[in-house]
Amino acid sequence: MSGGVFGLAAARIPLSVSAAVGFIALLGQVCLASLLVVSAVEQRRRSGEELLPALVAGASSRFRTVLMTALLAILGLLPAALSSGVGSETQRPFAVSSSAGS
């Protein structure tokens, strides 16, 4: 969430309804990524692994998945974040807040 706030501040875009919707999308993406990591850790814990090794192994096994999800959001919203044409007044805040937070 702090990345989205800093992204909006760096782009000098005020908080608007479009930016708030971008934060909601960012929150959904973060929840999905954390659910993937937590499920991997829980799966390892159920198999009898200790907590610290399960945390390290679970997080490292899902690192690529979380990284690809974040890159998808960043690269997919980059054209909208850099746009300056007609309609960019609503697209830019959404794209900056949801991609900068990734």
User: Count the strands?
Assistant: 0
SSE string, helices as H and strands as E = HHHHH
Mean pLDDT over the residues: 91
Strand content: under 5%
Unreliable segments of 5+ consecutive residues: none
Distance between the termini: 9 Å
Helix-and-strand structural type: mainly alpha
Gyration radius (Cα, Å) is: 17 Å
What's the total helix number?
Answer: 5
| Largest sheet composition | none
Please give the share of residues in helix: over 70%
Oligomer status: single chain
Shape: elongated
What tags apply to this protein structure?
102 residues, mainly alpha, 0% strand, single chain
Outline:
This protein is 81% helix and 0% strand. The protein has 5 helices and no strands.
Explained architecture:
With 102 residues, this protein is mainly α. The chain has helices spanning 2-10, 17-46, 51-61, 63-82, 88-100. Helix 1 (2-10) packs across helix 5 (88-100), helix 2 (17-46) packs parallel to helix 5 (88-100) and helix 4 runs antiparallel to helix 5 (88-100). The model has no long low-confidence stretch (mean pLDDT 91).
